[in-house]
């Protein structure tokens, strides 16, 4: 089955840029989606199809995907961005949805 | 406004059964794939099952195949998850999610608030 690998944690100072990676075999050939989950809350879709933003998601959130790594970038990080972030793809070979293990973003 | 409201969670003994429900509103339920996603305490998200708009296709994560059954009632705008032969490792918050598919991919664009299932003696 397809495996997505994320770093367990990323730390960033307020106002700086956070980059959260999602590794997978030739992930650039797949579409990657990203979710934000704050404590005690349901996940929220923040990036879909690699780089599109749902309505209501700030422009500070962006995404890219190439080769074996997809990246979620959060610019001008705010305290309210502190959360767990998950990448997700659809594995067409098995018709299964796959999540990465998640990355905890800490705002210093 | 899209709303997904789960119910049916609770405490169940190992080997027992439980049926989760998800009431959908604010969109044309019969036009969307629907999914269950779970999250064990302190752990990450795990996709559990998907069901096509008309119920003709269903997919499951390997760990629940043969034990869990996803179903839907489009007339009632409801999604279900029948869970049998429950194990301690099935303990999790179970989320109902709307799945948005294209020819090349799929994601979960709306989520419910989740219902907690605890499997313990």
Walk me through what this model shows:
The complex is a heterodimer of chains A (108) and B (121). Chain A is 0% helix and 45% strand. Chain A contains no helices and nine strands. In chain A, the strands form two sheets. In chain A, strands 1, 3, 4, 7, 8 and 9 form a six-stranded mixed β-sheet that branches. Chain B has strands at residues 3-7, 10-12, 18-25, 33-39, 45-51, 58-60, 68-73, 78-83, 92-101, 106-111, 115-119. The chains are: A mainly beta (108), B mainly beta (121). The interface between A and B is medium-sized, with 29 and 25 residues.
Distance between the termini of chain B: 40 Å
Low-confidence stretches of chain A: none
Strand-and-helix sequence of chain B, N→C? EEEEEEEEEEE
Helix content of chain A: under 10%
**Shape descriptor of chain A:** globular
Order of helices and strands of chain A: EEEEEEEEE
Task: Figure out the total of helices of chain B.
Answer: 0
Secondary structure layout:
The complex is a heterodimer of chains A (108) and B (121).
Chain A: E1 9-12, E2 18-23, E3 33-37, E4 44-47, E5 61-66, E6 69-74, E7 83-91, E8 96-99, E9 103-107
Parallel strand pairs in A: 1-9
Antiparallel strand pairs in A: 2-6, 3-4, 3-7, 5-6, 7-8, 7-9
Chain B: E1 3-7, E2 10-12, E3 18-25, E4 33-39, E5 45-51, E6 58-60, E7 68-73, E8 78-83, E9 92-101, E10 106-111, E11 115-119
Parallel strand pairs in B: 2-11
Antiparallel strand pairs in B: 1-3, 3-8, 4-5, 4-9, 5-6, 7-8, 9-10, 9-11
């Amino acid at each position: 089955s397809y495996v997505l690998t994320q770093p367990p944690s990323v730390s960033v100072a307020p106002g700086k840029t956070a980059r959260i990676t999602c590794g997978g075999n030739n992930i650039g050939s797949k579409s990657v989606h990203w979710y934000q989950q704050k404590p005690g809350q349901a996940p929220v879709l923040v990036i879909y199809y690699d780089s599109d933003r749902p309505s209501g998601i700030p422009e500070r959130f962006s995404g890219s995907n190439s080769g074996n790594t997809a990246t979620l970038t959060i610019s001008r990080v705010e305290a309210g961005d502190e959360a767990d972030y998950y990448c997700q793809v659809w594995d067409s070979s098995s018709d299964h949805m796959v999540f990465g293990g998640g990355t905890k973003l800490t705002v210093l | 406004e899209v709303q997904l409201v789960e119910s049916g969670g609770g405490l169940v003994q190992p080997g027992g059964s439980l049926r989760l429900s998800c009431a959908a509103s604010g969109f044309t339920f019969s036009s969307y794939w629907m999914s269950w996603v779970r999250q064990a305490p302190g752990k990450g998200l795990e996709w559990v099952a998907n069901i096509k708009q008309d119920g003709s296709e269903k997919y499951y994560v390997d760990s629940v195949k043969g034990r869990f059954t996803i179903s839907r009632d489009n007339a009632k705008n409801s999604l279900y998850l029948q869970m049998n032969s429950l194990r301690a490792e099935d303990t999790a918050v179970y989320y109902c999610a709307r799945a948005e598919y294209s020819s090349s991919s799929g994601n979960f664009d709306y989520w419910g608030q989740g219902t907690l299932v605890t499997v313990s003696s």
